[in-house]
Amino acid sequence: MGLPGDVHIRSASGAVLVLNLPTFPAQAPAWSSFTIRLDETAGWHVGSIGGPLATKAQLLQYLSNVGSFRINIRYNSGVSTFTGAIDNVVLNQRTLVPAPTISSFTPTSGKPGESIVISGSDFDPTPANNAVYFNGLQGNITNASVNSLTVTVPNGARYGQLTVINKTTGLAKLSAEPFNPTFDDGGRIIPASFDPKFDISLAVGYGGLSLADMDGDGWNDLAVARADNSGIDVYRNLATGGDLTAASFAAPITFPSGLSFTNGSGVSTTDLDNDGKLDMVTSGWTGGPGVFATFRNISTPGNLAFEAVEYWNGRSDESPVYLAADIDGDGLPELVSAEGAGAAGQNVWIAQNMSTPGNIEFGYSLFYFPQTLDDAPSGATLADLDNDGKPEFILVNAFGGQFSVIPNTSTPGTISFATASAFTFTTSVQGVINVADFNLDGKNDLAWKNGFSSDDVHIRLNTNSGGPLASTDFATEIILNSEVSTYGALSLADINGDGRIDILATDNADVGIFENVYTGGVFDATAFVPGYRFQGSGVSTYPSTALAGDINGDGKPDIVVGITNTSPDRISIYENKNVHTPEISLNTVSPLQGPIGSTVTITGDYFSSIPAENIVHFGDVTATVLTATKTQLTVTVPAGASLAPVRVTREQFTASYHLPFITTFSSGVTFDNTHFAPPVEFTLTGADYDIDAADLNEDGYPDILAEANGSRVYVFRNVYTSGAISTSSLIPNDSIITTPTQNPRLIDLNGDNKPDFVATSGVFRNISSGGEINFEAQTSIGGTLTIQEADFNHDGKTDYVGSNGSSTVNIYENRMRQGTGAFISGSNYNSLSDRIDFTKPAAGGGPVAADFDNDGFADMACGNGATDNMTVWRNNGTYRLETTSFTSVGNIATGDNPGRLYIADLDVDGKMDIVLYHGTGTTATLISIFHNQSTVGNIVFNRVDLTNPTNVTLAHIDDLDGDGKPEIITVSESGNQFSIFKNIHTGGPITAASFAAPFNTTVTAPRGITTADINLDGKPEIILTRAAGFLLVYENLVPTVAITITQQPASPYYACEGGSATFTTAATGTTNITYQWQKFDGSVFVDLVNNSTFWLPHLPLSSAMFLLPKQGN
Known about the structure:
This protein has 1113 residues and is mainly beta. Strand 61 and strand 62 (808-812) form a beta hairpin. The N and C termini lie far apart (128 Å).
């Protein structure tokens, strides 16, 4: 008789399940039929008929390893023994129908609202009977056939493979290549591309994170596994849009797992039963084995709901969710887990999915890999590396010390791997292996985070051209270095919507982003911009793998990470604020000269179509924007405009034109004592050499910032009202004392349209409001001497170059972040980069920055006093500023002991020239002009010398008489004068004759010099400092020609031959208008003699006459 019981299931190890039939079989010749369910409802017992009832987990375990089935056919009733017979035994199996296939989809990237077409097979011809997921968010299917689906890209679509579900068959297919959601007008990925993070505190700790639409309302929600394995908290997105805050999400709803703490929980949101709704899976401990815990989704839009949790046993006391993916191609996602601590024997198990729509069902977890491949695993990835349609299993193991690529030989319903053909790479890996076609050759490459050294990201290029995969197919390695630190993990997303996949890397504290700038050709480390860091919660808080997805409906992927090792644990969210900086095209500020009130057209791209959202500066002051489109602005030249490039700021990003705008107001004068009023004197105790001017409080009037001895800087607020400039026109309004503060320069570093100032000691933020001028206390970053600003890397943030007195020039890259505009120092997130040094032959000098070769990038130059030359560096156009960003094009001889450099387009030929002085040495009275002869990619200057009457202390350049040609102005402290070199250049090469002999004005010991239109009359005043402790303002009195002809003679005018005709005209101006009547003699206009009679002969063509204005104030 053997073991009692009618039916036995015996495992290969000898364990047995036993079941008695519900009734005694019929006696011959009759037959009885029995149907026995292989599940926990049938009454199976463990070990014997008297043993405990088998659980579902035990049934799955036995059925996963069946050694034999036994049916007893001898029965002892207690009275008689009967021997039966078996006519037929049928063991039912699930029927596998073909899963959908995806042969292609087009386009492979697109914006929300656009359509894509998916081609393949075994789709349902009814649109509603299919579902297409864009990595966690469902798209709307507008057309369907068996072989094609047309789908609208949803708001919130995330980068990743598409999932197509045939809800009729309950099977799904993942696309071979990813879909990339894009958006319009994205720009460079820089520190300002994201708002500072905000946090959502987690009451029960962090165990895993997923970003997906759980209730089907079209918005990405947050699913957070609890650290104690007790369940999943779902934070529903309230779909409010706008700026993200913690209030963008509803309070969490907890879905309890009923489990206890074990190592790791994890969470995945995947449609496990292919009913068109994303289910959840996490893990925990039952007191015995660790289990997968699944939650079937029954939510409706706005209402989160899940069926009661179900368990699926793992193979140790933990079963963290490593992966949910279809391994065998049967259209159902398997679950993968592992014993992460490492142990003798096998450590990775897979639970095969046998679900049907409405019923989640998994088989017993089985081992598939030998210990040599799966010891101490820490992550898994599934990806097709040889384009055979079967994804390889990529397993990170040895506590992250290696990873293995295991070829997949599965067929639908049968999971198998060619473990003998696996190959292993010994390398440090944090997180999982990411897969993407980085070099656009149609083959999936490998990328991972190296967590324990400065070589942050490793990429192995796939060169497999068919045939079995081998390690040699991944021999080419690219290493990306940056300031991103240790630990962390990688993920992929198109952060700036440009169609290229960027790399997100977390470390022990922060999130770093490597911008993809690859456009084809050789693929090397320059394909990515070294990653900028976005501040996290602090060192050793270990942010999780970054998830990127649009949370607020603006089309831009935001970043979400989980934070541990804090109290409490939290979720951190970084809102994506990426925009393209405005661009001003070359040769498209037109006209580049004009009077106050004239209209200028600025052509470019990425302007706002709302005029008020574009802030346009003409040097010191803000212009009025008349009209605006994405590619063109028209503006009015504002009162107070100075000789400086036009700047356009939008959303704290600024573009500057490469040439200065010149404010015109006369046809020029020969300078004499009538052209500037006697100086107005203001007390400036300890007046020193550096002085600058700009509108500091947004009232439209340029204010003055001046250096003084004793590390002091004074600010004079412009309160001019009317009439002549007087001592009441400027008032002291702020003073800054620190050590050391020298060489102040006004630069709007944070894009708030208030010029900050930079000096040797650091930066001072402008916090002026309500007319009062105020600067915050110094932030100790970016200190240097003789500063010149430029956006060297075209990221919309103004950088600057200085000289620190040694044999280098120093560049500071502007890394201002979104938010308050406050400057940050003393951390990894400083508002300015560390100092970037470029060596030169000698110490000293004052650098300049300008696009000398008109290639669109600002170059730089600096003098070298001891070697009698200047060094010029050409900008190589890198995305981040580093020592490779510039190449020296050589040292140009200057003559003895060159001083500071100045820039202007002196001959108005569209190229920036350089002016320098020689303050000491054998040529102390020399002014040298370096006439720009450059072409794109080739920087060349010709030197021309002018002689100053006395030794030069400092210089300045501005168009003082409004004729469109900038003058050179010098001050001589030892010579007690300042001098004006009038620009009289008429064309061709600049020579010494291009400037008139200097007009000199006596002033005792002048030091600093600048210009500004203090009274907004369109004419720049000369502003000096004197060693005796004064600030002097010389009001510009050059006459302004402003004549308008208000009446012209009637045209046509009819008169009889021999008769008289009267022509009347009128003009307005200020004073002293002179005029001249002319007549047309058939070829040219000729002057008429005033107070005389003239006659017009009978001509075959009409004659004409007009009034020619000559001049006026």
